[in-house]
Write a structure and sequence with these properties.
It is a single chain. This protein is of the alpha+beta class and 205 residues long. Among the domains are: 4-35 and 52-101; 149-205, no CATH class. The chain is 35% helix and 14% strand. The chain is built from seven helices and eight strands. It has a three-stranded antiparallel beta sheet. The longest helix has 15 residues, at 87-101. Residues 1-12 have low confidence and may be disordered.
Length: 205
């Protein structure tokens, strides 16, 4: 079996569909990928970023076009054929890659929240570097600032819309949305006149 070509990111000679699947699954971009609940994710250095099935099929199709098979004619002369450029092989490769990269769903990481600069343990406040082993599939796109004050523009919005005394209530139910370890025994039900800030607060969440 000849699959040395893919090591140099060039056209890969393969002698079987299994080899083609191996090339697709172990090539650099999918080698840093996993599958959770049948969905593909790619490690981007901070969290596992979702990749659509369309993107994965495109990657497989591109490598299916590159891959070729070496055959020999009746005079033992080698020639190249490209038998992998069809939907049948693409679909087989897709199913193989998804099965090969499947990971058991991790339910013990709900207490971890990724930010741009680090990961926070919501139970203790402990911070730690990003780590692919946490299997986090989302990130808060800001740096974590512990013990920071409420931004003045937001404080003023709450005071004007709901009253200063509601600031801690809004903070409490907002933290429930951000912290999946908090039991959902309560939910906000906003009442009031139109153009009073209810919709703005809902959109913000």
């Amino acid at each position: 079996m000849q699959i040395w070509g893919w090591l140099f990111n060039t056209a890969a000679p393969v002698s079987s569909l299994t080899a083609l699947l191996t090339v697709c699954c172990l090539e650099g971009r999918l080698a840093t990928g996993i599958v959770i609940n049948s969905a593909f994710y790619h490690w981007n250095g901070k969290y596992w970023e979702h990749k659509t099935d369309t993107a994965i099929n495109k990657l497989i199709t591109d490598y299916g076009q590159k891959a070729f098979k070496i055959s020999f004619d009746k005079d033992s002369q080698p020639y190249i054929i490209r038998p992998y450029e069809n939907n049948k092989h693409k679909e087989s490769a897709f199913k193989y890659c998804r099965s090969r990269l499947e990971r058991e769903t991790l339910t013990t990481n709900a207490h971890l929240l990724a930010f741009n600069d680090q990961v926070v343990d919501l139970r203790t406040g402990q911070t730690m570097p990003h780590d692919k082993a946490f299997l986090l599939t989302s990130v808060v796109p800001y740096d974590y600032q512990p013990n920071s004050e409420c931004p003045e523009v937001f404080r003023q919005f709450i005071a004007d819309s709901f009253g200063e005394d509601m600031l801690e209530v809004v903070r409490a139910f907002t933290s429930m949305f951000l912290d999946p370890t908090v039991p959902y025994g309560w939910f906000p039900h906003l009442l009031g006149q139109s153009v009073g800030g209810k919709g703005t607060l809902g959109e913000w969440h």
